[in-house]
Write a structure and sequence with these properties.
about 290 residues
Length: about 290
Amino acid sequence: MEVLGLAAKIHRRQGAWEKSTQEFEHALALDPRNTDLVADLVDTYNAMRQFDVQGELYDRLIDAFPGNPSLKVDKALAVQYQKYGDKAAVWAAIAELPASIANDPVILRHSLCLALSDRDWSKADHLLEQLKSSKDAVSFAYTPTRIPIGCFALFLARLQGKRPGAEFDEARAQLAKSVEATPDDAGLLSELAVTDALLGRKDDALKEARMAVEMTPVAKDALDGPRFVINEAVVYAWAVQPDLAFDRLAVSAQTPNGIVYGELKVDPLWDPIRQDPRYEKLLAELVPKD
């Protein structure tokens, strides 16, 4: 069973999605109580945009871990949000959480992203303050990399139409220092690219975004590589290069673990290209068929 699971992970990374899925399913059939395998399958079906199957697997995890109510938030994010752009379902799942975990940094990060997409600036400000007090870094754009909270403050300022000033230099410097310390981490470099794009450091952002994609190409890493392509599109969008942004998005829309309907529909990272006719066309291509 362990050999099957390892083979499935290797084949998933290589882009052999169907083979990987079969191996994960086979391993799970041999060990149906193995929640790690269920979690691996959740991620695999998510990358393949098979949200309903993913939802069924989340139900198994929820039954297996009744003491972990945050799994219901994860399910709402993975299914209703990614498939339909349904923010209300995520807000409802968060509202049902017990007070003991309501201020967990990951939950606060989810709430902040929802508040930003709702354009609820006062709630976003309040959540930012809570995150700052937690002293934990959280993920920002389309990678799971941990970055300074100040990058979220920068994003909030840009969404409100404010020009970035020196108050964001520290957050950018912290992120750049992390990139220098781990030069092989394409995730950090990709996050720095998005941050620089928001700061108006266009040339730096373009260079960093392209370098991150070159460091981890989809052909060599089918799991993480597609997320750097999405961030590259984000950088092009904020660098006022919409043709390149839509070119990258068109590729991403056809790639496992690429952009999905819900993300493109509601994530404010796409605000610079939201009024372009190509945006609605791409949304129509990604909309769930069921």
